[in-house]
Amino acid sequence: MNSDSDLQIAGDLLEVPHLLQAPREHPVTVAEFVGLARSIAADRAQWEHLVRYDATTRWYHRLRAVPGAHGAARPGQPATGYEVWLLSWVPGQGTGPHDHGRSSGVLTVLDGTLTERTRKGTRALRAGQQHVFAPGYAHDVTNDALEPAVSLHVYFPGLTEMPMHSAHPAHSAARCAAAPAGREAADAADA
């Protein structure tokens, strides 16, 4: 058995500056976007005073929009960025089945409980829980609880489309209707 520690074998990495990565100004990896969502969620002073509840329409607020934070994905393509949205949900409010086009996302429940329905099944997401999804992931998010809910959504790249899908067999027709005309901005903020 070797008695030398890994530190003795490799040396102190902090003493070799060229091996250290410079801290990033903006998240790049999925783990870093999850971390961004967690840090915003933990800082209630940053978002709690902004939350509004509206029984007649979905409420949303864009907390952050960072266009072009990552440079071009490939030569000749536009730079990609990310967006952070805050949404409130009164009981019964939902999105209808949809995806987020070419955007990946992190959904974090801040308060309350949201129900997510996909073709694979249904799950409850409670305060503190997160769900990460890839481009094209289709779901329907609804507040089926008796109490309001609040959620945080990080989209990368920033949301440019939100295609609606036909109803999943387990959904009611009311939840699967397309958003009314003129609601493009609200659609962009949906889960």
Describe the structure.
- The chain has 191 residues and is an alpha+beta fold.
- It is 17% helix and 27% strand.
- The strands form 2 sheets. It has a 5-stranded antiparallel beta sheet with strand order 1-2-8-3-6, covered by helices on one side.
- The C terminus is likely disordered.
Overall pLDDT: 80
Euclidean distance between termini CA atoms = 54 Å
Strand fraction band? 25-35%
Q: Give the strand line-up of the largest sheet.
A: 1-2-8-3-6
Order of helices and strands: HHHEEEEEEEEHH
Count of individual helical segments: 5
State the helicity in percent bands: 10-25%
Note poorly predicted spans. Answer: 169-189
| Oligomer designation | single chain
What is the C-alpha radius of gyration, as a whole number of Å?
A: 20 Å
Shape: globular
Q: How many strand elements?
A: 8
Sheet with the most strands, sense and barrel status:
5 strands, antiparallel
Secondary-structure content class: alpha+beta
List the helices and strands and how they pair.
Elements: H1 6-10, H2 30-42, H3 44-47, E1 59-66, E2 82-89, E3 104-111, E4 113-118, E5 121-126, E6 130-133, E7 140-142, E8 149-156, H4 173-176, H5 184-189
Antiparallel strand pairs: 1-2, 2-8, 3-6, 3-8, 4-5, 4-7
